[in-house]
Description:
Shape: globular
Largest sheet: 7 strands, mixed
Strand order of the largest sheet: 5-6-4-3-7-8-9
CATH class: Alpha Beta
Order of helices and strands: EEHHEHEEEEHEE
Mean pLDDT: 96
CATH architecture: 3-Layer(aba) Sandwich
Number of domains: 1
Helix content: 10-25%
Oligomer: single chain
Amino acid sequence: MDYKNIIRDVPDYPKPGILFKDITTLWKNPSAFKSSLDELAENYRKMNITKVIGAESRGFIVGAPVAYILGAGFVPVRKKGKLPAGTISESYALEYGEAALEIHQDAIEPGENILIVDDLLATGGTCEAMIRLIRNLGGNTLGAAFLVELEFLHGREKIDAPVFSLIKYE
């Protein structure tokens, strides 16, 4: 399926000079949404993934169904202060400052095989922080899968795990 023809370009969002790739048009298309999730999951069917983690909030939209397809559990990674039980956190750089992600302390058992799934790979900071969270809990990051990769931002270079992106923009 030609996903690029389904994704909407929004010029000058969120600021002038940016061409935003709006994947909500892919998500609202039932056949494109299903096909994209099936294709993401296909690469990992034989890897014994025990948990999929996805970052708030769009990573939930992609990660939870991929976990379902793989027969794995889903673990949400959230912004600081949003999870109800004991957590660990990792900071990561933003364009102007820093943010933090948290995961429940009991979300991953040592030795579990983890797949990171997110909607977009840009600079790689979020994924980098998620890999550190997984390692801190003793999990093995077997891969990072993304619907879209903005290759010109070189985020893949920061990720210490095999990366798969379904749709790439140079």
